[in-house]
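Board notes (copied after class):
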Amino acid sequence: MRVVVFSTKPHDRQFLGAANAGRHELVFLEARLLAETAPLAAGAEAVCLFVHDHADAGILGTLAKLGVRHIALRCAGFNNVDLAAAARHGITVARVPAYSPHGVAEHAVALFLTLNRRVHRAYNRVRDGNFALEGLLGFDVHGKTVGVVGTGKIGACFAQIMRGFGCRVLAFDVARQPAVEALGVEYTTLERLLVESHVISLHCPLTPQTHHLINAGTLAQMRDGVVIINTGRGPLIDTRAVIAALKSGKLGALALDVYEEEEGVFYEDHSGAFLADDQLARLLTFPNVLVTSHQAFFTREAITAIAETTLGNLDDFAAGRPCPNALKA
């Protein structure tokens, strides 16, 4: 089966190619799937997409006319695909529901520990010969209250790690997980979690209900100096609101692996140009803000699992078998 792979980076070629082992004809493109690039899928039965590719109703209509019948997402999120439109066009869609929850959770913890103990600032200081301690004061993690919003596989792993640090962990989710409760995690309301937590980590999916979950109103409910970590989806956070909270001192620190306007910025080298996004540029001026480029998933184990599951989904499509990872509108 001919598959056009959009948003390709070198690691995609390496790991997808190894997992494919010649079973399908993979055509790797650096371009993202947009209205103007959709014609590049001509002659393919399937396309393989990533988080910044667009598959709205118009683009899906174009793909259907070109003969595309399958979409293989090499990610867990699917908010960039109009599933109802895909169904109308007879296009099946499958995702990678889980790859390495440990990797993402560990990255969230790494961001938090780096911010709390000011490791990023200390690293730069020492390299300049400055060994002073002023401005590097952190706090003991042991005994603090950590709020986990979303207790799927990643949130559960994060909760387990923080329990290992000796933290009291509060959780909010629409569905309670007995395995998470068995760790000593207490499920509660979102309001109580916001009020009592010293650290809040976001691991919930992006839905209309969770869009801008962190906003001026919810920030006002939190304790002064709270630390927020987001390795979920960028639009879970209202960027203007957190900038205001950082300026006022309400927000003690902010760690972002995702950003609501990251498309076209993350995964690209902009070091030779001005950063056009004023809000992101403003965030990067704060010493208590740490931003990474949507890399929490980026471990060897995770990329291998993503590639193998993606190729397995394509195998199911090609064989006409039911795909366990297929999505429905």
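Comment from the instructor: The radius of gyration is 21 Å. The chain has a mean pLDDT of 96.
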